Amino acid sequence: MPALTVNEQVQGESESDEIDVVAHSSSSEDSMQLDSEAGSSHELHNHGSSLMDVDTGNPHAEHNSAVSSVDSEEDSSDEDSSNENNSNEDDSDEHNSESEDDESKDTPQADVGGIFGGSRLFELGLGSAVRMGNAQRFRPLIAALGDSGDESQQLIALQELTELLAMATEDTLIGVDVSSLVQTLIALANGPSPELAGIVSGNANIMLLACRCLSNLLEALPLAGSVLLRHGVVDMLCTRLLDIEYIDVAEQALTVLTQLSRDSATRVCAGGGLSACLMFLDFFATSTQHTALTCAANCTRAIANDQFGQAADAVPVLERTMFYSDPKTADLSCSALLHLAVAFRSSPERVERLVSAELLQRIVASIRSGDSAARHTSVALLRLLVTVASASRERAMQLLGLDVIPVLCGILAASCADLPDASTDVANTAGLATTGSRHQKSAVHMSEQAWEALRLTVTLLPRLPASDSSLERMETLVRDKCSSDSSNPADSDSVSDCCLRLQAIYSSPGTPDQLQHTLLPLMLRMFASTTNTPARYRVLLVVLKVVFCLDADRLRAALYSVDLPQFVVAAVSLQDSPLLSATALLIIQVVLEKLPGHYTQRFVREGVVDGLSTL
Fold this sequence. Notes:
- This protein is mainly alpha-helical.
- The protein has 33 helices and no strands.
- Helix 28 packs parallel to helix 31 and helix 30 packs antiparallel against helix 31.
- The longest helix is centred in the first third of the chain and has 55 residues, at 2-56.
- The chain is elongated and about 100 Å long.
């Protein structure tokens, strides 16, 4: 690399020249300062002597002026020569820069990016250095927490650590010994420990700041939850909640437990977190109650079958809080109880223990009242009733005995207030969503309350027997209104269940009239206004069960005000949904068995038979 060597020599010479110039300039400035100080007096002397010479006619005055003019000419010539030298040096510098540019085209650049392999590697190296610097800030704090016996030093270290973790991110925590940090904080929050010396027991500030550090750590690094669980943080938090010494420490421990329950609800519930967070719920403020109920709802979502004891202990608290006036408290309580019912729905006995008959009565009364608290929790309460009724036959019978069918009819009627009347042409309104009519928006967006009410109606109404012989038997039971004399011990379980449900329906004076005059026309309107296949299927199931439950006289009176043939033709023609067509065929079969003389010719005349031929 000879060119690079020459360049380095030129740069070295230029640097030495610059040093000489600086030294010379500094010395010249000192000399100029001294000359100016001595020259001022000399100038005054010369000026005075010149005046004297002029006045006295001294012949040396002309000689002095001539000498000064010669000196000025010499100074100007020196300035010209210095300017020429500077221009020559500038030309040489330009020549050197051009040569350096030419050399840079042929030789690799020896800059910082080239040394580190590019700017990206330089940034990575710089970021790694910054992260290592952040990690260095945590080490003395961890050491101070574990080794120092001075309580004030621990408090100072905890305060600084709290601030660092509050502003920390996953990147800034790279290189930090999280396991050692978590172990130290858990020991501090847990009180006295033989593992760490110098920790004062019972210090509320130390315990509070330690729990706060754990909370900030989980916010900055969610993956640290596994480290906390490995070091037994759930036991420590449950201890702080079950044996409350300081309310602030208990609230902060509850916050940490709720954060862990988001992703590790099974571990939290296995450690007793569900019972701990609800034990002293009434002693906390409303915002802290929301935190505790959120933790309970998370735990109940992942509760195991062998943890029914915790579920049974939590139910009395949830029964009390689910009817609070605070909407969020009531909603979280309903969600927690719903998760418990779903978790144990395979066991009717456990569901009946979780949801008692008294609780069912309070739930139905709350839904019937329609107050502000019930409006916020009506969806969760209806969903809870659906789960309980589908899991326990006894609870379903009790719901029918509480006259819940009129309540459900009122909810469904309110959701269909703007829909067309059932006496209109159902065949034309069956495809509202495809024609883009004004009812399309209300049809597509069925409210959650109406959806859950529809599901509960399907669950409560009796199921049709599977075989034709059982169906004939049930027709006899319907004609006899399922009296106690008509029951037969030889009946199958499905027939017995259907008989019990029919008996509960007809024992209520207003329920058969609601099925006849309200529910059946309402279902035809809902089918014509919705395009949701699951909703349409459940509407057809309700129509099938209502047609089956009503005797011949009530069915004839109910079908007098609706256009049933056009309805079943519209349902059968939906060939893209075989389930809907099959359910419509069952409706036709039940109607023809109950009213053969009235609907046989009508089905033929109004195109039902032609619609069946297309299947």
